[in-house]
Amino acid sequence: MSIRAFASVAGILYLAAGILGFMPGITSAPPVDAPPLTVEHSYGYLLGLFPVNVLHNLLHIGIGVWGLLMASSVATARTFAMSIAAIYGLLTVMGVLPQTHTFFGFMPLFGHDIWLHAVTAFVAGYFGLFAADEIVIIRRSNIGTDNVKVYEERPHP
């Protein structure tokens, strides 16, 4: 998968997660022992597993749109991947710590969100740091002949 494809796929997945987080049939009420939040609007569990609220859903939608916009070039997609790795790495650590697992009462970062954020950070880190640049193949033919010349272009970071 290319870096640009990663940005597109991540964008689509996070946009979908953000939208689904607002759908009552897709989210369920939080259990009685769930940590309390200051922002309780749309507080629930997406697919019964992932705690979300209105701010969490809006964050997912924002990241999804950002990913789709950044997929336009290799350089911007790499920046997106590195940024997502840092952001979701931080959210993973915050989700593990009891003092910050609700982002100071604003967003739930606990439960299954911890491993999902860790996987997101790891995959984004791979694409941001190690994935090779795309190679664009350009085929040009001479008019009136069957000769085809093939050129490789590697984008500059």
Structure description:
The protein has four helices and five strands. The protein is an alpha+beta fold and 157 residues long. The chain has one domain (3-153). Strands 1-2-3 form a three-stranded antiparallel sheet. A two-stranded antiparallel sheet has the order 4-5. A hairpin with a 6-residue loop joins strand 4 and strand 5. The relative contact order is 0.17. The mean pLDDT is 89.
Could you give a quick summary of the protein structure above?
The protein is an alpha+beta fold and 157 residues long. 48% of the residues lie in helices and 13% in strands.
How is the largest sheet built, in terms of strand order? 1-2-3
Kindly, what is the distance between the CA atoms of the first and last residues, rounded to a whole number of angstroms?
18 Å
Helix proportion of residues, in percent?
40-55%
Radius of gyration, taken over Cα atoms and rounded to an integer in Å: 20 Å
User: What is the count of helical runs?
Assistant: 4
Uncertain regions: pLDDT < 50 for 5+ in a row? none
Class per helix and strand makeup: alpha+beta
Order of helices and strands: HEEEHHHEE
Let me know the average pLDDT. Answer: 89
Strand count, sense and barrel status of the largest sheet are: 3 strands, antiparallel
Q: Count up the domains.
A: 1
How many β-strand stretches?
5
Strand content: 5-15%
**Overall shape:** elongated
